[in-house]
Specification:
Layout lengths: L1 H21 L8 E2 L2 E5 L4 E4 L20 H8 L7 E3 L7 E10 L11 E8 L4 E8 L3 H10 L5 E5 L2 E6 L2 E5 L5 E7 L3 H9 L1 E3 L3
Antiparallel strand pairs: 1-2, 2-3, 3-5, 4-12, 5-6, 6-7, 7-11, 8-9, 9-10, 10-11
Length: 202
């Protein structure tokens, strides 16, 4: 009787193991090279850069407002070159920089996502935001429609940019979009910011 009980227990254990394997095992959290992914309310997944070790190299530019480490962390999960500002007017501090990976269910290859960085200045009040990669069309449209005059040509790490009243729009040689939107900056300051953009990694 004892032998039958042991055999039955073993058979039940094997059956349970097989069921767990077939169902894909217990649920686990999704991670990316940038760390855990949390779903944002805007329909995108934001990769947290907290788990990424970032070490500046000899070629890493000195990003303005002590933001070098933040941009290096955002570069790690990105499949495109990330650029950082090497010039910002005095008083700006980094508010946030992160990589966003879009949720594209049913698509075998996800889109390249975007890197978003924002800086703030308290006095005089000003803000500036950088969006790079494949931003929503609304980001580009908002910049174009908010301009009160025709854009002028400018420089963005050696490639061409269009400078608007409140920002800049550029396309890098590898085909990615770069958008700067700013409040409280003069046209000259905006030109210097765009001209001072440099790739974080070669």
């Amino acid at each position: 009787m004892k032998a039958i009980t042991i055999v039955a227990a073993l058979a039940l254990s094997l059956l349970l193991s097989a069921c767990i394997e077939d169902s894909g095992g217990p649920a686990s959290s999704t991670t990316t090279p940038g760390g855990p992914v949390s779903t944002a309310g805007s329909g995108s997944a934001t990769a947290s850069p907290s788990g990424v070790a970032s070490t500046p190299s000899a070629n890493t530019p000195a990003c303005a407002a002590d933001s070098t480490e933040g941009f290096l962390r955002a570069q790690a999960p990105a499949s495109f070159k990330v650029y950082c500002p090497t010039f910002l007017p005095a008083g700006f501090t980094l508010d946030d920089v992160h990589f966003e990976e879009p949720l594209q269910s049913g698509t075998p290859i996800p889109g390249p996502g975007t890197v978003v960085a924002s800086f703030q200045r308290v006095t005089p009040k000003a803000s500036i935001q950088f969006v790079q990669g494949r931003p929503d069309l609304s980001v580009v449209t908002d910049l174009r429609t908010s301009s009160k005059s025709q854009p002028v040509d400018g420089s963005y790490d050696g490639f061409q940019a269009s400078l608007f009243d409140k920002g800049a729009l550029a396309r890098s040689p590898d085909g990615y979009t770069h958008v700067i939107t700013a409040e409280g900056l003069t046209a000259d300051e905006l030109r210097q910011v765009a001209a001072g953009m440099q790739a974080v990694a070669p």
